[in-house]
Design a protein that fits this description.
By secondary structure, this protein is of the alpha/beta class. It is 43% helix and 22% strand. The chain has helices at 2-11, 19-25, 40-53, 75-78, 104-120, 122-129, and strands spanning 30-35, 56-60, 68-71, 81-83, 88-90, 93-100, 136-137. Strands 1, 2, 3, 4, 5, 6 and 7 form a 7-stranded mixed β-sheet that branches. A hairpin with a 2-residue loop joins β5 and β6.
Length: 139
C-alpha cells in the first residue's frame, strides 16, 4: 500500500503520454535512451521521460538501437535525426534530445516535455541537485 502511494505521489502533476506517443517513443515497451557518460542531466531526463511514458528505462550507447538520444546537435546526424532545442549547455556545448525522423507525435511531445520542465523550473532544479552550476546552464 505504501509503495502504491509513493508511486502515485511521484506521478502526481504529470499526466501519462498519449498512446501514439508511447508507441513512437517506446515501441518495444521500454524507452531505449542513448547518452554520453559525461552528460549527468541526460540520465535524470531519461528517467523522467520513461516515467511519463509509463515504461521502464534502458540506457544504451549510440552504436546500439535507441528510441531517443541525448546528444550534441551535429550536422552529420541531422540527415537521420530530428532534434529538440537544447535543454542545457553543458561544458560549453549544447545538449539536445534526438529521435529518428518520421515520428512527428514523438518529436512534438519531446519539445513540449522539455518546455514544461524549463517553464516549471524543474530543469533548473535538476542542475542544482546534481551540483552542476559550474558546468551547466540553461540556454
Amino acid at each position: 500500500m505504501i509503495a502504491l502511494a509513493l508511486l502515485c505521489a511521484a506521478c502526481a502533476g504529470a499526466e501519462l503520454a498519449p498512446e501514439p506517443v508511447v508507441e513512437q517513443l517506446a515501441p518495444t515497451g521500454r524507452l531505449r535512451a542513448a547518452m554520453a557518460r559525461d552528460d549527468p542531466l541526460a540520465a535524470e531526463l531519461a528517467r523522467l521521460l520513461a516515467r511519463r511514458l509509463g515504461v521502464s528505462l534502458y540506457t544504451t550507447t549510440y552504436d546500439a538501437p535507441f528510441d531517443v538520444a541525448f546528444a550534441l546537435p551535429e550536422a552529420a546526424r541531422a540527415a537521420q535525426l530530428d532534434f529538440t532545442a537544447p535543454y542545457a549547455i553543458l561544458d560549453g556545448r549544447p545538449r539536445v534530445m534526438a529521435l529518428a525522423r518520421g515520428r512527428p507525435a514523438a518529436g512534438e511531445y519531446l519539445r513540449d516535455f522539455l518546455d514544461e520542465l524549463r517553464d516549471s523550473g524543474e530543469l533548473a532544479a535538476l542542475i542544482e541537485r546534481r551540483r552542476l552550476r559550474e558546468r551547466a546552464r540553461l540556454p
